[in-house]
Amino acid sequence: MKRIVVTGGLGQIGTELIRRLRKEYGNDCVLATDVKEEGTERLGEGPFELLDVTDGNKLSELVKRHRADTVLHLAGILSANAEKNPQLAWSVNMNGLYNALEVARQESCSFFFPSSIAAFGPGTPQDKTPQDTVQRPNTIYGVAKVSGELLCDYYHGKYGLDTRGVRFPGLISYDALPGGGTTDYAVHIYYDAIRKGSYTSFIAPGTYMDMMYMPDALDSVVGLMEADPSRLKHRCCFNITAMSFEPDQLAAAIEKHVPGFVLNYDVDPARQAIAESWPNSIDDSAAREEWDWNPKYDLEAMTVDMLEKLKAKLS
Ligand code: NAD
Ligand code: AKB
């Protein structure tokens, strides 16, 4: 039975991942932590501790006290918020990661790192971006993600630490709201479709980005952490994707189920520039070959489920 510590557990991913892990491994086996406390009731039964990941001593104390064998390091500042305060983003995203890796090394824990499509940049091939390719991002978030990937691979090579990770695309979900990223438009559009029948996008038409529905993202974490290590040629991190679309295509998918839905545009230059520096679509064949990655939701299936779940939530 695994004993897991999750950092940044009250975010968009953590909220759902912790419930899923508690179902799989037992409530008491999963220690949720975050720098804030609002939203703990959404995590279900199980232990919770306040933790700022820049405090390495507290992180170490909690991992030891929980007798953890696995650390899932979700704490971070997302792309758009990171550009507003690069110094804070570096401190949380890099120093927090270093602290978490050091504790994992000392306590011999398996380690999960959520990288991002942001680990690519303007010089990367933009279509079907390969697993191993140019990574020269021009955002502080992306710079920290590439550095984090390298650091995780370093800990694997140097210390034999069981580090694993994925490059998540934009994640779409109906439970916790996204935390200040560039792909957030693809979540907000569903809320506004139900509340107002229209949405104003801060991302321009024709801007393709990879996306994924949260149930597939949760499967990816569990699937990769359970994967047979002898099959893994890569560690940090695997390209994974489920779909790639631009705002008009997303609007058309929603309009099929919300007749009369209207998409307007008021493009935010800062977030648009970030989006344009990321791939249009990435190639996830390494993940498919090495640990049988296989997402279930395409745009249509995700849209049907999102609208149904959100209608129930907002009614
Ligand atoms: P989120 O912003 O929703 O949640 C991040 C959590 O980290 C928040 O609950 C926040 O309170 C916490 N946090 C911030 N500073 C902290 C600190 N100093 N100490 C401890 N906790 C702190 O983000 P998310 O979407 O859940 O993403 C989790 C991870 O996955 C991040 O590393 C993110 O970069 C990565 N990721 C997310 C996406 C996505 O679309 N959601 C895509 C790619 C990668
Ligand atoms: C963001 O937009 O910052 C995140 C991500 C793709 O990393 N959703």
From TrEMBL:
GO molecular function terms listed in the Swiss-Prot or TrEMBL record: L-threonine 3-dehydrogenase activity
- What InterPro entries does this protein map onto? Epimerase_deHydtase, NAD(P)-bd_dom_sf, NAD(P)_epim/dehydratase
Can you supply a Gene Ontology BP term from the record? L-threonine catabolic process
**Ranges of residues in domain NAD-dependent epimerase/dehydratase:** 4-226
Q: Which family does it belong to?
A: Belongs to the NAD(P)-dependent epimerase/dehydratase family.
PANTHER family assigned to the protein according to its UniProt record, in alphabetical order: L-THREONINE 3-DEHYDROGENASE, L-THREONINE 3-DEHYDROGENASE, MITOCHONDRIAL
The entry's protein name is NAD-dependent epimerase/dehydratase
Instruction: State the organism of origin.
Output: Dethiosulfovibrio peptidovorans DSM 11002
